[in-house]
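User: My collaborator sent over this chain with a note saying "see what the structure looks like." That's all I know about it. Can you take a look?
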Amino acid sequence: MNLEEIKELIRVFGRSKLGKLKVKDGEFEVAMQREGSDVVVTSAPAAAPVVAAPVAEVATQTATTPAVEEISGEFITSPMVGTFYASPSPDSPAFVKAGDSVRKGQTLCILEAMKIMNELEAEFDCKILEVLVQDGQPIEYDTPLFKIEKL
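Assistant: Without extra context I'll predict from the sequence alone. Here is the result:
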């Protein structure tokens, strides 16, 4: 990660309502956390093992989206911090919806991070039981996106 990417990440985090952010890129790792109204930034090489803290409910989460602690089962989670998009464009149908069976390699959604659109593909054959986030919703690392049943 270069200096400009880090500065952009700090700007985006500062404008968001997220409480914590952790990004790992190869051997570089950066973590940001709000304390009061200030943003605290720490960075370290990724060589040291990292213990994951429980994911807290995002402040922008709506009442229709269950809290992370309340849901159970098998899920496809977000591999990054960004914005969830269910379709390739606003006027296009969603890549997948509840009840769809998907094959390994099929696109499930788009995750936007730092103005880069990343397609999230299924890592195995499965059935989508529920889409857990809304189109355009900001998401954190490891946020459950889809409740699934492996086929």
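A starting point for your reply to your collaborator: The radius of gyration is 16 Å.
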